[in-house]
Amino acid sequence: MSVIYIEPFFHKKENQIAFRFKYNNEIKEYIKQLKSLRWSSTNKTFYIKNTPNNKVLVYNHLKNTPWKVDYSAFKKNTVIVKPTLTPERLSFFNDFKKFLVGKRYSESTIGVYSGFVYDFLAFLKNTNLKEITNKHVELFIEEVIVTKAYSISTHRQLISALKQFTLFYPETAMTNLELKRPKKSKKLPSVLSQEEVVDLLRCTKNLKHRAIIGLLYSAGMRIGELTSLKLKNIHVDRRQIFIENGKGRKDRYVVLAESFMPLLKNYFTTYKPTTYFVEGTLGKPYSESSIRKFLQRSCKAARISKHVTPHTLRHSYATHLLENGIGLRHIQELLGHSKPETTMVYTHVAKKDLLDIRSPLDIIVNQLTKTNKREQNVLLSRNL
């Protein structure tokens, strides 16, 4: 039986309620029915604000489900407070954040790395920083990564953060070379068929939502690139979109699909955005969480049972380009990948070459159909 662990934790300067469980799409979709539910990329968990009303809401929502709910970590009146650092240690931590800013990391990377280092410093308590060894790191990993069942990618991010910590403060007894990241999970990306993409667009009735899905797929954009896309960077005459300061602080151009133009003009005429391609309230960038939510509704309407995220559309774009004969080098440029190895993953999911491979069963059946020299009730092998 699947188990849902309800746990208190501190996030974004507030007490929160976390939902932890082994991946189960049915559980995920049921939990997402809760109002005000949010996703933490740093902690890899769904959560809502820890309030008395929300405690009752969570209990009532989960009490009649077929899954076991574990509240053992969430005792009545328990308040989880972010551990505080001494003024000296806090000043040290702020200097580390400035160090990351100076290395020109993105805001999200700075947030993730600094969050891990803050927790690490709190875990060390009063230990002299010059006496920190790799053993302290191992104990921290056992307490944070193992007990909270964080993913391999989160574990790798933690090690990357601590490697930056050793560069910032080399006086520790930690050995940078011995801080090894666990190997990446070699999971193939989920990809929609071309027919499913068309069904997804047809079943998305809201014009703004359809324009978002259409651009995500037709240009292979990341969700953050779309929400930050400004109107001035859409060059209709040249049929190009200028992606400014994409992942890795790289600029690039992507193709503005000719078939997307009628939808784009209809969207502009109806919604009249002023600054960004798609805008939320008061002209601010549209919420990424809103895109994920309506995408799930569209998938349900299109009867697509796969786990689909905005990034799935990017994976599908790259795979379909490869299947249509576009070279890996061009795909790498369009996607904005730094390394060709990253783009190579699509060779494992593209079906173009695989369709040319005949299954040995097809070959056997084809030969028997042509020759038809043996009776159907006679065994073909010579096994006794």
UniProtKB/TrEMBL annotation:
<dbReference type="InterPro" id="IPR004107">
    <property type="entry name" value="Integrase_SAM-like_N"/>
</dbReference>
<dbReference type="GO" id="GO:0006310">
    <property type="term" value="P:DNA recombination"/>
</dbReference>
<dbReference type="GO" id="GO:0003677">
    <property type="term" value="F:DNA binding"/>
</dbReference>
<dbReference type="Pfam" id="PF00589">
    <property type="entry name" value="Phage_integrase"/>
</dbReference>
<keyword id="KW-0233">DNA recombination</keyword>
<keyword id="KW-0238">DNA-binding</keyword>
<dbReference type="Pfam" id="PF13495">
    <property type="entry name" value="Phage_int_SAM_4"/>
</dbReference>
<dbReference type="InterPro" id="IPR044068">
    <property type="entry name" value="CB"/>
</dbReference>
<feature type="domain" description="Core-binding (CB)">
    <location>
        <begin position="87"/>
        <end position="170"/>
    </location>
</feature>
<comment type="similarity">
    <text>Belongs to the 'phage' integrase family.</text>
</comment>
<dbReference type="InterPro" id="IPR010998">
    <property type="entry name" value="Integrase_recombinase_N"/>
</dbReference>
<dbReference type="InterPro" id="IPR011010">
    <property type="entry name" value="DNA_brk_join_enz"/>
</dbReference>
<dbReference type="InterPro" id="IPR050090">
    <property type="entry name" value="Tyrosine_recombinase_XerCD"/>
</dbReference>
<dbReference type="GO" id="GO:0015074">
    <property type="term" value="P:DNA integration"/>
</dbReference>
<protein>
    <submittedName>
        <fullName>Site-specific recombinase XerD</fullName>
    </submittedName>
</protein>
<feature type="domain" description="Tyr recombinase">
    <location>
        <begin position="187"/>
        <end position="359"/>
    </location>
</feature>
<dbReference type="InterPro" id="IPR002104">
    <property type="entry name" value="Integrase_catalytic"/>
</dbReference>
<dbReference type="InterPro" id="IPR013762">
    <property type="entry name" value="Integrase-like_cat_sf"/>
</dbReference>
<keyword id="KW-0229">DNA integration</keyword>
